[in-house]
Specification:
Glutamine Phosphoribosylpyrophosphate, subunit 1, domain 1, 650 residues, alpha+beta
Length: 650
């Protein structure tokens, strides 16, 4: 795993000047690659490439980047791994190619020489962000893997194009304009992250997953990127080729696919382990690692003793059954809170998924002993693991049958009562109703129902389920409402079954822009390479071929993935309610983080950009502290933005 940067200028520059720019940018990514660095320039093109290396495969100098192809046509900087590089190199060797070393980077370049860029990328199994200069066509190509596991940002303004693995590298480039994209800020307050292709900066963009961007002239507007793989096309293809086998046939097929996905991700020349939460996804990955290695797998988990967020006991049980070499670290609230001041540097774009904290802590723990760790990310999005898939689909569909006028009126009535009042009312009524369930945070559930009722369509109902703030614009000083990519994707295919629409939108937005961004930044902050076998594109393509009953059965998601895991561990070890990998944000904001939060929110010197409405924010904070609302996530988003603003806009 590495960090890549580059600059392309509209006018030629001296090599020394170009390489100095690349070095200034790449030093911002030293955490991504502490083992080696390099720069390369093409002065006549106004181009320079920079690289920071975390050595994983071929630790020798033969893996140094930037690297040129054998014939000298292509020059590359590459972040990530192509896991099937051995198979590709064998094909190229049969055709006469001779390799100097055994890195996947050299194989990528040889493939580009032999088959061209687009055709080669379609052969790759892996996670990657690639920048490659073609000296024949005088074009720079930026390439991102199919699922968006590896990040790639680019910036264009006034004849300058820069790119890199993180925004902080772009900010260190020439003439970087830090103007905030206020529509991106609104999206962020709603979803807790900035959906691609936007970034928080007006002139910077995220390259979409599965796309290639080809640039020939920095003086012209950046052209549209071209897809080489798209989830919606995979979905349409899968509809024409549905899996029609038996339960046992489906289990066998997924087991074989996952086994190969795990096996090829165990290729490395450095120590390897896995992050283990004890849930379905990470347990499946660890079970398959154990089955594919004669040695005990190193596993790592963190514990939050005495809290509802502590899953360490489950991880320990799985580790015991699978006979892993397990390391567990107990984390106190003070340990977790100590991470908070680091978050604006770790996530150099506003980011408010609270699981960022435990993800960083478990990555830091693992890095003491290993350089590569496999994770279980992606199982929920592929196999319908979220409650909003299992129960939300049913609820949204039923509510959609209620006349809109009636639905909106009832929703407004529910919304006029605080969550705390609903909690109290539910607490009085539930004991009087035989069989009524006892729900934690019943008031919040009722308020969410009110929000759903107030929406005009199924797509808007789903957006409501995803929203931290239902109306984020009221917290902005200026709110230029522009549709986010999530809005566009929800409206794109109204004829799709609701479950498929929800999962497709999440795979194209929430997965790359929240979950995978979180894992990438948290792991790379400590120079740990995280690999995600469940997101092998072959597994994704197979998952879309599966009819609904292979995902949701008997009121529970991930049916098929569970069956694969049951081949290795007893069901009772993993069949329990989903907890999630998070932290008690609400109690922290009302307790040990309250003073910090109020200093950020109400100190006038911390509002230099004037982007938020201080009166609205103060009202929301006061209501939360008085238990008139439970808007912890929304307030966390505002605090993370204010913290980011103080770090990057001051």
């Amino acid at each position: 795993m590495c960090g890549i940067v580059g600059v392309l200028l509209a006018t030629p520059r001296r090599a020394e000047e170009l390489e100095d720019i690349a070095r200034r940018m790449s030093v911002q990514l030293a955490h991504r690659g502490p083992d080696d660095d390099g720069v390369w320039s093409e002065p006549s093109a106004g181009l320079a490439l920079g690289f920071r290396r975390l050595s994983i495969i071929d630790l020798s100098a033969a893996g140094h980047q930037p690297m040129q192809s054998e014939a000298g046509r292509f020059t590359i900087v590459f972040n990530g791994e192509v896991y099937n590089y051995r198979e590709i190199s064998a094909v190229l060797a049969e055709e006469g190619h001779r390799f100097r070393g055994h890195s996947d980077t050299e194989v990528i370049l040889a493939a580009f020489e032999r088959w061209g860029i687009a055709a080669s990328v379609r052969r790759f199994i892996g996670m990657f962000a690639i920048a490659v200069w073609d000296s024949h066509t005088r074009q720079l190509s930026l390439i991102r893997d199919r699922l968006g596991i590896k990040p790639l940002y680019y910036y264009q303004h006034s004849g300058v194009i820069t790119f890199g693995s993180e925004l902080k590298a772009l900010a260190a480039g020439p003439d970087f304009d830090r103007s905030v994209d206020e529509s991106a800020l609104e999206d962020y307050l709603r979803y807790l992250y900035v959906p691609a292709p936007k970034t928080i900066y007006r002139f910077a963009r995220k390259l979409l997953p599965g796309h290639i961007l080809t640039i020939a002239n920095a003086g012209l507007s950046v052209p549209a990127s071209e897809p080489y793989w798209q989830a919606d096309e995979v979905y349409r293809s899968a509809e024409r080729n549905r899996f029609d086998g038996s339960d046992e046939g489906a289990i066998d097929a997924l087991w074989a696919l996952l086994s190969d996905a795990v096996r090829c991700r165990m290729r490395a020349d450095v120590p390897m382990g896995a992050l283990l939460s004890g849930g379905i996804d990470s347990s499946t990955v660890v079970a398959l690692m154990r089955a594919n290695s004669p040695h005990a797998t190193r596993t790592f988990s963190i514990a939050f003793p005495g809290t509802e967020h502590d899953e360490a006991v489950h991880a320990a049980r799985i580790a015991s059954v699978l006979e892993t070499d397990h390391t567990e670290m107990s984390v106190t609230a003070a340990d977790a809170l100590a991470v908070v001041p680091q978050l604006p540097d770790l996530f150099d774009e506003p980011f408010a998924d609270p699981s960022q904290i435990p993800t960083y802590l478990v990555s830091k723990l693992a890095r003491r002993d290993v350089t590569v760790a496999l994770t279980g990310d992606g199982g929920d999005e592929l196999f319908a693991g979220y409650e909003r898939y299992v129960h939300g689909e049913h609820l949204v569909r039923r509510l959609g049958r209620v006349p809109r006028v009636v639905r909106n009126a009832v929703g407004a009535g529910i919304g006029s009562v605080s969550a705390r009042s609903w909690d109290a009312a539910y607490g009085r009524i539930a004991p009087l109703v035989p069989g009524a369930p006892r729900h934690r945070l019943a008031g919040e559930r009722i308020k969410k129902l009110g929000n759903l009722l107030a929406q005009d369509s199924e797509s808007e109902m789903y957006r409501s389920l995803l929203s931290a703030w239902q109306e984020p614009s009221i917290y902005l000083a200026r709110a230029p409402r522009l549709p986010s990519r999530i809005d566009e994707l929800l409206a794109e295919a109204p004829g799709l079954p609701l479950l498929d629409r929800m999962m497709l939108v999440d795979q194209r937005t929430y997965l790359p822009d929240d979950l995978l961004a979180k894992v990438d930044r948290a792991s790379m902050a400590v120079s740990l390479e995280a690999r995600v076998p469940l997101l092998d594109h072959r597994v994704v393509e197979f998952a879309w071929r599966l009819p609904k009953q292979f995902k949701i059965r008997d009121g529970r998601g991930k049916w098929l993935l569970r069956q694969v895991l049951y081949r290795h561990v007893d069901p009772e070890l993993v069949d329990r309610p989903k907890t999630g990998f998070s932290v008690p944000i609400a109690s922290w904001l009302r307790g040990p983080l309250r003073e910090w939060g109020e200093a950020l929110l109400f100190n006038e010197s911390n509002n230099s950009a004037g982007l938020l409405r201080a009166d609205r924010v103060r009202e929301a904070w006061t209501d939360f502290q008085a238990h008139r609302s439970e808007a912890a996530l929304g307030l966390w988003a505002i605090l993370m933005f204010k913290s980011w603003e103080a770090r990057w806009l001051s």
